Amino acid sequence: MSDKKSDKSADNPVAKQTSMEDIVSLCKRRGFIYPGSDVYGGLSGTWDYGPLGVALKRNIMNLWWKTFVDDRDDMYGVDAAILMNQKVWQASGHVDTFTDPLVECSNCKSRFRADHLEGDKCPTCGKTGTFSEPRQFNMMFRTVVGPVKLDPEISFPNNTSAVIKDHNYTYNVDWSSEKPEVKANSNDEVALSTSYLRPETAQGIFTNFKNVVDSFYPDLPFGIAQQGKAFRNEISPRDFVFRSREFEQMEVEYFVSPDGWEKEFDKWVSDIYAFLQQLGLNKQKVHELEVPAEDRAHYSKRTIDFEYDFPHKRDELLGLAYRTDFDLKNIERESKKSMEYRPKDGSKAFVPHVIEPSFGVERAIIAVLDAAYTEDEVNGEKRNYLKLPAHLAPVKVAVSPLLKNKKELSDKAHEVYKMLKKEFGAVMWDDNGNVGKRYRRQDEIGTPYCVTIDFDTLEDDTVTLRDRDTTKQTRVKISELIQELK
Ligand code: ATP
User: Fold this and answer.
1) Tens of pLDDT, residues 424-461
2) CB atoms within 10 A of CB 270
3) Do β-strands 222-231 and 302-309 pair in parallel, antiparallel, or remain unpaired?
4) Which of 46, 172, 286, 312 gives the lowest tally of CB atoms within 10 Å of its CB?
5) Residue 388, helix vs strand vs coil
6) Best mutation site among 99, 100, 245, 247 for ligand 1, i.e. most ligand atoms within 8 A of its Cβ?
7) Measured CA distances, 138 to 93, 114, 380 (Å)
8) Long-range CB pairs of 282-291, under 8 A, 24+ apart, other chains included
9) Would you place residue 188 in the very low, low, confident or very high pLDDT band (cuts 50, 70, 90)?
10) What proportion of the chain, given as a percentage, has pLDDT over 90?
11) Whether residue 232 has its Cβ less than 6 Å from ligand 1
12) Helices (DSSP H) in 42-194: which residue ranges?
């Protein structure tokens, strides 16, 4: 085998706008993301991550954590419970105002988010002028914590099951064999046991503000970071994982002194760009939208939406908001506990203000896939590959024996595979099909390097190392392989 080869002239990728169909189909075919509960016909707005998707997602989340927590000395991480005391959501204003305007078509009964509609033509049935007046629909998923007692007034047909209607929600209660103990006034208990699947991770940070201050006594400004699931009962989930009902957020609440917030806000703008660059996004596809006061969330005095030219349209990738002291003051009022920060220089204690960069993992994933999705030609044939930054690629390197059924090649390849796996972890064994097909398959999932063990390997302990982007192949000594791949 020659020293440098190439299975194409790959230096001229064809510039093409990636479509959402390209991304969705790649994700399903190659095991990144599947529709949730697919085997039972799905559940709208939910998605399951397959082996490669979970690896990509973790790589993005770990990169974020490293960038914004581990590499800084002004950040503290938390991981708060998803279920929180309902007072959290009352105090934060979510119970009253976390709503989207809902309209219903009187002809086909389809429901839409009013501010996402263009004109008065129903997208489902095509009729015009059939929309109801918008009503505010609260997007929090409500649930009941613990074994809720039943209302004695309710009748139970045949003593087998019951339906409790409470606050417009219906609970189906299993009523098997014995009558459970029933307490009077138990509807109150339903109300008192109500909780919500959190619609943002931020409140788990605010409620731990005092804990972190008391344990670590950090200097201001400092931030508390959290990653985790958030849930919103979106009226119409759509655009793949872009608008899901269950998704993952990565948020920082950055506590500042009220007179210095502008400077800190500007620093966050540049920190965000630096992170987006690490995701491999093209800066020209990222746009800042200064959100006008009437469109801002109820807590915000300034918000920039960082929009991205997604395959479906330009849309919000992440938000940066100045939340003032809104949340800590609310907690103070409702919990009757002081949220004041006492400066170490002995100056007057005050409630810090907050700047919040809020990233959505799903939207980052689509942007990363959009940026990486590349088409070019190899030996006159079309090739699709993911030009992922190596630090995000789900598989760092794939190892194959040139021929599957030659034991000596396979044994040697397994040795190399084990060595690399010990070093890099995310290493794939791939001996299906011929070597050309393996390369294409690895290209499609964004594996930066493939290592092939051939007959020369048995003679001189060198392997073929093939580069995804250039498709160049070089001979590398096994003893130098790890260094070469680092
Ligand atoms: P939108 O206006 O698109 O509904 P939002 O302004 O309500 O979004 P925020 O409340 O600012 O969103 O949430 C912070 C981030 O969480 C968003 O920038 C986005 O990345 C992510 N996010 C919000 N809602 C969803 C969702 N339904 N599915 C996936 N990610 C979401």
Assistant:
1) 999 999 999 899 999 999 999 999 999 999 999 999 99
2) 9
3) unpaired
4) 172
5) coil
6) 247
7) 11, 14, 54
8) 282/371, 285/309, 285/367, 285/371, 286/317, 287/314, 289/316
9) low
10) 80
11) yes
12) 51-65, 86-91, 94-97, 186-192
Residue where the block lists tokens 């959402």: 20
Report residue 119: phi and psi, to 5°: 75, -170
DSSP string, 25-83: HHHHHTTSEEETTGGGT--TT-EEE-HHHHHHHHHHHHHHHIIIIIT-SSEEE----SB
DSSP strands (E only) in 430-471 = 449-453, 462-467
158 pLDDT more than 90 = no
Q: Cβ(291) to ligand 1 under 6 A?
A: no
Quick one: pLDDT at residue 156? 45
Nearest to 454 by CA among 409, 411, 420, 417: 409
The residue contributing the CA closest to ligand 1 atom 16 is 360
Q: How many CA atoms lie within 13 A of 310 on its CB side?
A: 25
Tell me whether strands 111-113 and 141-144 are parallel, antiparallel or unpaired: unpaired
Q: Which amino acid is at 333?
A: R
- Name residue 383's beta-bridge partners: 376
The DSSP-derived string for 221-265 is SEEEEEEEEEE---SS-BTGGGB-SEEEEEEEEEEE-GGGHHHHH
Q: Cα Rg for the chain, rounded, in angstroms?
A: 27
Two tokens, residue 337 = 């506990």
Q: What is the pTM (predicted TM-score) of this model?
A: 0.90
C-beta 442 within 6 A of ligand 1: no
Least confident of 288-302, 354-368, 457-471: 288-302
